Amino acid sequence: MADQRPTLTTRQGHPVRDNQSLRSVGERGPATLENYQFIEKITHFDRERVPERVVHARGTGAHGYFEAYGKIGNEPASKYTRAKVLNQTGVQTPVFVRFSTVIGGKDSPETARDPRGFAVKLKTVEGNWDLVGNNLKIFFIRDAIKFPDMIHAFKPDPVTNQQEAWRFYDFISNTPEALHMLTWVKSPWGIPANYREMEGSGVNTYKLVNDQGVAHLVKFHWVPKQGVRNLTAQQAAQIQAHDTSHATRDLYNAIKGGNYPEWEFCVQLMADGEHPELDFDPLDDTKRWPEDQFPLLPVGRMVLNKNPDNVFAETEQSAFGTGVLVDGIDFSDDKMLQGRTLSYSDTQRYRVGANYLQLPINQPQDAARAHTNQRDGQMAYYVDEQGEDKHINYEPSLMGGYKEADRPEHEYRPHVEGQLGRYQTSRTQDDYKQAGERYRTFEDWEREDLVANIGADLKQCPEPIQLRMVWHLWHCDEDYGRRVAEVAGIDLEKAKALPPMEGKPAPHQAREGMAGVGEEPATTEEVAAAK
Q: Boundaries of each Catalase core domain copy (predicted)?
């Protein structure tokens, strides 16, 4: 029977033939500026709420400082990057950090099962560097064009105004790349005990560039020196029964009492390139870089030692963007990073105003005071200092004004070549592998909580979603799918009999791809015994 549903279009009425992929140069990118469909979609999404953040509305923040060790692992940091903030020792770079949940509104409970935002603004001597990430090292999707759909599915139903499990799993069941993140979020890692005992990650792949113009792919991570602690669903419910702001209270009281939280800043490094030897694309933010192959290398430390004087002026008006980088740190072609770089700053201009960077919380420090030819706009209250040249708000000029900065001797100029089109990554078998590996490396209590949470959710879903989700989980790990099916009362054999998803390659069977060629893959029981 022919599909009778109306065709999806843009706001201009143009039929949408691919709603899953940015337009990019070749499969790995970079993305291009003429992505009209994406720009229309994401900029409208950025303006869906006023003035509360569309996502990350519930948050708290603190001031502190960052100190670099001057080394990356055992090597001088200058070997990999010319960024002064990572090279100079004995310098305390001011920082402001905003922690948050993602989906809930401003007054939602901090015990919600949700990724946690971990956004850091470093006010370096070369200008601001914003590292905008989450507590988990991965994300649900790998192409930014899917972001509005994902958030719509996770947010309350536009009719019932309630979060519905079926909407969440309807999206996940049609997006296998999200299975890895699902496995993390529905485990105890989906509810950190507080913000102090929580990891942070830049999630996306960036590049470090040195004085010779040589680049390395890099992942950024924050490791709490307080340790990591998470909550089960039952523990979170007990806290929420008497306190919906427990994490904000914990952070505020710790800093007020002089118990300053501290994180070690670490990186994972990889040579710049496509890395065909790996079974995942290093630009794919739904995948972790295995730490046995790409270890976490210490770079510096961050200490939070001052609470905001005014929550609205500082925490709520703080504005972050993934495009805010300093020299020596650069973009990769990660499609989520490229989409976020447009969306984040676009959101701030809409939410806080065209001159949000004039607010003290967002201004660079005096050593890197902004000097631009930008003028006017909503809430402009000063003009950049120009001495006698205030007449000159353009460049170039023979009469004064600003000049361009000197270019580095060795610029980083990656070669880009490819057919312009809409692409999905061809390394999709790993959408199941890493989710299964994560399931098997959880502690027993973490697996039990994960299975109970997903099973309880799937009981609320229609049968087609139930069956497809069990099919996915069984392909991640047979034990994973079987136990969820048992908890939810779903017919496992009926789920296993489903055909592969239309338009997507069939995943490897649950027992394939979990070990090297010629090796017998480890079972769940064997992994547990090895511990």
A: 9-403
CA distances from 128 to 10, 179, 264, 386 (A): 35, 35, 20, 21
CA dihedral over 99, 101, 107, 112, signed as positive or negative: negative
* Least trusted range by pLDDT, from 32-46, 339-353, 433-447, 499-513: 499-513
Q: Does residue 350 sit in the same domain as residue 484?
A: no
Q: Is residue 172 part of a domain?
A: yes
Distance CA 227, CA 205 (A): 25
In a domain, 13, yes or no: no
**Of the residues 35, 56, 210, 453, which is catalytic?**
56
Cα R_g (the chain), whole angstroms: 24
CB 230, CB 189: distance < 8 Å: yes
| Pairing of the two strands 206-209 and 71-72 | unpaired
Q: Which one of 35, 87, 128, 134 is the catalytic residue? A: 134
State the average pLDDT for the chain: 89
Residue 134 catalytic? Answer: yes
Q: What CATH number has the domain bearing residue 484?
A: 1.20.1370
Residue 422 resides in a domain: no
Question: Is 230 labeled as catalytic in the residue annotation?
Answer: no
Q: Above 90 in pLDDT, residue 462?
A: yes
Q: What is the pLDDT of residue 518?
A: 30
Q: Alpha-carbon distance 380 to 374, whole Å? A: 10
The β-bridge relationship of strands 75-76 and 116-124 is unpaired
Question: Which whole-number Å values give the CA distances from 76 to 84, 298, 439, 482, 501, in the listed order?
Answer: 12, 11, 37, 50, 49
Domain's final residue, options 340, 358, 376: 358
Domain limits at 446?
430-530
> Which two structure tokens, joined as six digits, stand for 191?
């509810």
Beta strands in 77-170 (DSSP E): 93-101, 116-124, 127-134
Q: What amino acid occupies position 289?
A: W
Question: How far is Cα 63 from Cα 68, in angstroms, rounded to an integer?
Answer: 17
As a whole number of angstroms, the distance between CA 77 and CA 87 comes to: 6
Q: In whole angstroms, how far apart are CA 173 and each of 205, 467, 509? A: 26, 9, 17
Classify 71 as helix, strand or coil: strand
